[in-house]
């Protein structure tokens, strides 16, 4: 645990150094595409938002000067599967973005969707030593949290203080400077499969780049896709990617739960390829141009040319109705949404004051998906795309870019995490597990 603490602090310092140098690259390593943005920072001193611990900042301090995407290779379920292929794809994306930005980049901040994330809610409390809360008291209360036994081969990816209470006053964003006797904290801990992170670090180093930060796609997608009220009152962001669907829940501008379903848009494409007996590339094109999940009477009459290239003239000139295509796509989309529903139920999403759900990610663009999702998830559902970052190239404003745009916000205005404070390392023991969300019901 102490090694992790040190490595996260080292990445934080690297991020600051890269920002002072003025340029950093962002990488979204997805199953279907790898996206890269190059950011130029206008002044590192303007970047930290002074609103409080972990508060979300508005757009300021950076410009997007380069952007590129390439087809992903060697990634499955949002995790690196074939190292050499992923390395080539990352190099292609970074070089294209560097060329557009007309500058060289040494440091990257990356996000990924897989690695079997698990959420924990932690709680801790301490006596305030001087009567007024200072940085040391915050560090001590974070160190006092009972750490869950996260298991072998797991690593902490995010550790956010999400709520402070001083004596009988709960809901404090930043307790520093407040007068009181007893300080308590609720913290959200997100753990992932350690080998996935190690593979990511190794792959990025093979590309002659330094990793200056790493984040969960589910987390950063929420940062870019949810509006202020949704972040404040309690909302879920469903990031539907190619190989995995990330679920994050926000409350009081903090992520309080994250998980992922190992299914995505690529599964729908594979079903079409198998059902219609066409190559994956043809299935992807048919899904993009003709796909949907709600059939009407018109769809029986709308015929789709399969135009394959197998060499068999009869087979290549086949036609299918759009209704038949929808019949193949809908069961898989329903399965993904049912799995998402199970995660939201397990997280206690029904206890939030507002229950807005925002669908984002490339696979969320299937026509009719929002209506089907509203029926299966039983809440207000809207389609989301990246907000809060002006000046994006037109190609990077769609919902499939929510993760990489959220990563820009994460890079420029990181929410405070446990390793940002001088926490006494010997206090970080593994003691008892606090059920995720128990503190949420008690405090809000």
Automatic annotation (TrEMBL):
Stretches assigned to the SHS2 domain: 24-225
Bilayer disposition of the protein: Peripheral membrane protein
Alphabetic keyword roster: Cell cycle, Cell division, Cell membrane, Membrane
Gene3D superfamilies, alphabetized: 3.30.420.40
Pfam name, any one: FtsA
Protein family membership: Belongs to the FtsA/MreB family.
Gene: ftsA
UniProt main location, coarse: membrane
Description of how the protein assembles with itself and partners: Self-interacts. Interacts with FtsZ.
Origin species: Rhodobacter flavimaris
Function recorded in the entry: Cell division protein that is involved in the assembly of the Z ring. May serve as a membrane anchor for the Z ring.
One of the GO BP terms on file: cell division
InterPro entries linked to this entry: ATPase_NBD, Cell_div_FtsA, FtsA/MreB, SHS2_FtsA
Protein name: Cell division protein FtsA
Keyword Cell membrane: yes
Entries under PANTHER family matching the protein: CELL DIVISION PROTEIN FTSA, CELL DIVISION PROTEIN FTSA-RELATED
Subcellular location: Cell membrane
Organism lineage: Bacteria, Pseudomonadati, Pseudomonadota, Alphaproteobacteria, Rhodobacterales
